[in-house]
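Quick question: what would this complex look like in 3D?
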Amino acid sequence: MLREPSVDSSGSRFTPLVVLELTSDAKEEAIAWLLSRIRDREQNGGAELLVEQLGPGVGAEEKENPNMFLVGASVQRLLCGAESLGLFKEYNDGSMRAFTYANKHNFKDFTGDGDSFLSTAECQCIIKHELDTLRARDETHVPGYAQAKLYPGKSIIRRLLSKGILIQMFPLHEKEELKRLCFSWYKKVKLSLQPLDDIRHYYGEGQALYFGFLEYFTFALLPMALIGLPYYLFDWENYDKYIVFAVFNVIWCTVILELWKRHSASLAYRWGTLCMKKAFEEPRPGFHGVLGFNPVTGREEPIYPTSKRHLRIYLVSLPFVLVCLYLSLYVMMIYFQMEGWALSVYDEDPTFWTEILLFIPSVIYAVVIEAMNLIYRYAAEFLTNWENHRLESSYQNHLVLKVLVFNFFNCFASLFYIAFVMQDMALLRHSLATLLITSQILNQFMEAFLPYWLQRRRNKKMIRKVQKRRILEGKELPLPEQVRLEADMSTYLGTFDDYLELFLLFGYVSLFSCVFPLAAVLVVLNNITEVYSDAFKMCQVFKRPFSDPAANIGVWQLAFEAMSVIAVVTNCALIGLSPQVRAYFPESDTQLILWIVAIEHGLLAFKFILTFLIPDVPKYIQNELARLEFESLEAFKKKKQLHGGKCWKPRSSARSSEEDRSACRY
Amino acid sequence: MLREPSVDSSGSRFTPLVVLELTSDAKEEAIAWLLSRIRDREQNGGAELLVEQLGPGVGAEEKENPNMFLVGASVQRLLCGAESLGLFKEYNDGSMRAFTYANKHNFKDFTGDGDSFLSTAECQCIIKHELDTLRARDETHVPGYAQAKLYPGKSIIRRLLSKGILIQMFPLHEKEELKRLCFSWYKKVKLSLQPLDDIRHYYGEGQALYFGFLEYFTFALLPMALIGLPYYLFDWENYDKYIVFAVFNVIWCTVILELWKRHSASLAYRWGTLCMKKAFEEPRPGFHGVLGFNPVTGREEPIYPTSKRHLRIYLVSLPFVLVCLYLSLYVMMIYFQMEGWALSVYDEDPTFWTEILLFIPSVIYAVVIEAMNLIYRYAAEFLTNWENHRLESSYQNHLVLKVLVFNFFNCFASLFYIAFVMQDMALLRHSLATLLITSQILNQFMEAFLPYWLQRRRNKKMIRKVQKRRILEGKELPLPEQVRLEADMSTYLGTFDDYLELFLLFGYVSLFSCVFPLAAVLVVLNNITEVYSDAFKMCQVFKRPFSDPAANIGVWQLAFEAMSVIAVVTNCALIGLSPQVRAYFPESDTQLILWIVAIEHGLLAFKFILTFLIPDVPKYIQNELARLEFESLEAFKKKKQLHGGKCWKPRSSARSSEEDRSACRY
């Protein structure tokens, strides 16, 4: 059921899809100009969308922001937008092809005038794209805001955002669909997989890939958990029998990442994002520089010299990260001193209170780690922003790199120190267990339940407010209240933190689970609750995010692979430390180390060969893509022959638009 | 100056470009059928080329093969072929774009009807492509040869080749151009670089990239040679002072390979192959299987199950390679035993004859290594052929892998043994020097001078034969003799052996040059003579090869990178063995080894980060490619607006053929 259509200024009713919230003190002339640009015809450089001001709420109070606008579009406009976005949809023959308006009736599920052909997530994505590419013509600034400079070709929405005139732009939830999704996703008790296709349908491919990865990771951990459990149950104190586990670990972490690549490719193929081309990326809203000429487009736009950015990266950011790493090491050393001190106090006078004292350093250290991660995160965001990256993707890569290195160091440095400097395996197991369990509990609380509780309060307040005025039918809020409620919801900041959490969990398991075989079991349990809490927070706590047509998990694949290389090295070193192996070389440590190093190099080489041997895309998809390419080539040849072109046998690069669009090069 | 045009059957004169040599006992009906298919119009499935039988030579003897045919084409046909091949040519604005017939006047250097627009190498490549893609229609077999089965879509030329009816197909040399090229390349004494653009013009991009790489490699070695020379001159016996050199080595081999990638990309961009798309690859001539349906094209063609091929690779080829490696090890151990025996004989009775005896094992071993490499090469070719790869590229990759592993093992195993098991640095230096110098001398002799001497004899014989009948003007042979002479020349088998030689030289330098600093100097000298001898053999000894539009050095880049990883490990180990470093850890070998391992891991990590940080394609090319993409997008938008399409803002994937062709996606 679609939300009750609104009536736009021209009298036609439309389904609101996206909300624009301007500051409450936005100047009238700026608003009028913006609306006219959004409504203007495409030929005149407008976006040709439908837009309407949101009516006042039931209890319209002073503090309510009147400048909220609903954006929608006609079905035909959306279909054309789908073509210009290069959206892939399922074709009659079951393959995924780039949608074209001219060819629309050959696509599966296209019936009538196609108003249920695109999902709301796709529609919202199209509207976002159209709004983002709404460009200034000859305006020199936003009307009424002399300081909000514009130049021909500048994205209007991005300028409004960067100047704070536009507070936010977000897509609306679709209550009915969301309810169905919630039910099949986490509300019913079940033994089935997540409804990934429905998730993709509602939230887009980026989200669905995250949940797909979470699920895949959980299944990949099962064999390890199954081996780990008996190890844990029957060899609790006999922690030196972990060679088999370490060897298993090394192979496991290589194989699962390779298989994930294939799995991810087949998901992306099914969803049509595998071959989708990235559009030209716009500069980030916050990017600034002096006006110059873009070497690619030849247009006037802000230019910021790469050399300056490199100076900032290498002379400021890099040293800053190194200082932070040093600080983290320093804090770790203090922790070990405290630990030693507590132990000595306990040894001197073993009472109940001194026994409790033994736990204090660990608790303090855990809290300090979390706090440092948090503070560092802000610093990293600030610095990466200051580095003034032109593209969002470059910004994200630099941010991920910074955060990843520090988090890895912060979380694992103490474990490495215990394992390889102190060589105290009992302590390592103890630390690992505490770290894993506490961080899980903290995370799930901070991430889902706290925001949920806050949101619940807001919800109740809104319902009470509405109920004061009139009786609600079926507890459904009227549109203005619903929109205002969603506008107040927290913004989902992307999958960054979710992947980061998985990354650290993957680290705990792949690096040290041979010492603490229960780790895999704990992580499996955590992942299961994580699915529920993440699903819950996506559906109930956060604003709906714009869907992001991702073809893979991007930079995280690389991060996980780097971790798996570190895991090989670490596991080999742990094998070298095991008393069992040492017993083979009773006289000479040198021999032992040389053997371990040789084995480690062999494993690393094997790992790289394996990465090379296993194709990243399954054979059937490769065939399917080649078939599409071939078909379009043949179709073009026939067409050329029919039309009697001057040349007889043009090849793939010489195709007409229609065939080209349906071809999917990989 | 073009060769004197011949007259084809239809009466028009054409320049012969490619020669087809059929067996002298080929059946008349087969010949007539082949010629008619080659001459037939494209609409009827022919190649629409000009073809003519080569006239008898001056001294037409019995043994002369009459079935030699000259193939050429009209200028318009060649231009259309260039379009269908997807050839990139320089556009008016200096960028490289895919040539299109319709747009021909916008390309640089296109004047008149364009008969000097394409180089002869390009024309020959086009003709080869057209002949290769000349397909059977409803013929079930080659007329007159019931066993030479055909099925619709089968390449006729490939079937004729695989059945031995067609002996060879080769392009003709262009005497005048060749003379000019020889002069600027190796005949004049000069301090300038090689004329890479001219080489590319005459031999195509694959050859030019090889010579470019050879030149680059030589220059890259210069700093090492400059450091090595004083090391060698002043520290002759003080071979333990090589740490600085080892560190330099590690950084050097990483950096030069990364920079080569960039250099290669800019060469390929300049030559227009960087963005050229590979056409659908035909099955190899020798590929066989039962008729089935190709999953990509849906056509009937031989299918050979991948699982069977994998069985052959993993159950036969892999064990065979391992046995060969074992044999090589065995031979090496015999060599060391002989060495020891010779030494003991010399120690017992040190006379002149026993001193000579000391050299005997090395000489025998060197000869045996060469012989083993040669025999193995044949075995590898046989096995790879037997694996029945469908595509030439896959065949090549498997062959390169087999040969590379064995050659590496065969050449370096003894050096590794001396370095790390015997730890005798003086012997290592000695062995390295002998191996390097002898293999260089042998190679240059076997590779250039022997074939040259043979070819010279043939040349003289032919000239004498012609002179017997009539007087030659300016020593130029008449066409029939020239063609027959070229048909007898050795066939150039591609750059495989040349790259293999460079690969082994790169290995000697990067692995062990810290022990024998003169290695770099020797390799530089070798490379300089190599340029001359390779240039000489390309111009004088071999048939002209078909040009190969390569964009990079392919699998060899990977091979060199693998070698550079091994070099890091080896150099670190050599540092660990150096007495200087050992002096720092007088008490514990364990500490030393741990430090070395840690440093090695750090260096490897640094290497991978460096590979990641240095972009493979220089910024200016990235910009240029993005600009072309953007331009074609804009052109398409304008066109759509003019024509008033139903959708207003189609993006890159929705372009018409003309813009698409000019766009170069990277």
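Answer marked as accepted. Residues 53 and 69 of chain B are 4 Å apart (CA to CA).
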